[in-house]
Amino acid sequence: MTRSPALTVREITSDQHLAAIAERPSVSFLQTPAWGVVKRDWRSRSVGWFDGDKLVGVALVLYRKAPRIRRYLAYVPEGPSIDWEDAAAAGDLQRWLAPLAEHVKSQGAFGLRMGPMVVTRRWHNATLKAALADPGVTRLRDLPADETTATGTALAEQLTTLGWRPPAEVDGFAAGQPRHLFQLPLEGRSEDDVLKGFNQLWRRNIKKADKSGVVVSSGTGADLPEFHRIYAETAQRDAFTPRPLSYFDGMWAAMTAEAPERLRLYLAHHEGDLVAAATMTRVGTHAWYSYGASTTTKRDVRGSNAIQWRMMQDALAEGCSVYDLRGITDTLSEDDPHAGLIRFKLGTGGQAVEYLGEWDLPISRVLYSAFDLYMKRRS
Asked: What is the C-alpha separation between 62 and 341, in angstroms, rounded?
């Protein structure tokens, strides 16, 4: 058996990183150089895998400093961007991960965390509807999947063998990036196909917004304070901690400077009143609904549904293959407060997707364990 040549990892420029991203159908927006600018509390670096002089993979690595010592947790959110399918099939994942671990260790990392954007399982819409109606099914993890990928299965086995720690099974939303997401496939579909895939409530709400005179428009950075005003109202109503306006200002500046289509703001007005707003992120053929907000008053005009439909229409028009409604929890129990979230997203006709999740490699086991304990006490 011929062994593949060794790979090396070293820092690359933002331009090199962006050029590599442009050659792929898509990578996560969390793996763009701009995201490193957004995450100002972390030190960020773009790195590349080289086969000789050829750049064959890239990653955005974020470094979080441990308390009181100059050592770091290296974090690759929803990445890295490498040929996971080939690595899984060849059974040589260590060829990719060993040089990454050595590189971050040289930068002072005591541990490495990554969350490959690799699908392991999918549950179709009809399967999820039936599960929600069945009181005997309470967790997505216990529901047989309609699809299980060979790549995801092989990678999980290899990571375990190589000493990586798998993601913990948790209820609700855990720290880090969500493992379970809700996605609407767009490839090969028309607007009419997508609309017909919505449930009756979604179609009725879209029609109601239109008849009520809701107007959806594209916003600019100057509209962020108005977006933030109703976002803060949404946070108070739904009992979550809102991000400050400065966070969105920084995100807008960094991401739109990198690529004009990277981040967009949508505003829904009714008779001059802002009733809903949302942001959409896009990299290549993947579009994400990222932040949404709505007012308590005039919720009956269904501005949020109108915005979602407009974002889906734009994603379709621009050739996207996936419209991603981001995270859902593992729950399928009607008694769980998160059940409403999956029901809302289920109405689009989409499907639940499980990613490989965030895996950890302790480089210094003592420091990794101490940092892990520190983070658990903070949460």
From this structure: 30
Tokens 């950890």 belong to residue: 360
Beta strands, E only, the chain = 8-11, 43-51, 54-65, 72-76, 109-114, 119-123, 147-148, 180-185, 215-218, 263-270, 273-283, 286-294, 322-327, 351-355, 359-362
Q: Say if residue 361 is exposed, middle or buried (CB neighbours under 10 Å; 0-12, 13-18, 19+).
A: buried
Model confidence, pTM = 0.93
Q: Which of 50, 55, 65 is nearest to 21 (CA)?
A: 55
Tens of pLDDT along 232-270?
999 999 888 999 999 999 999 999 999 999 999 999 999
- From residue 253, alpha-carbon distances to 37, 175, 264, 278, 377 in Å are 9, 26, 11, 17, 34
| Nearest-angstrom CA–CA distance, 261 and 270 | 26
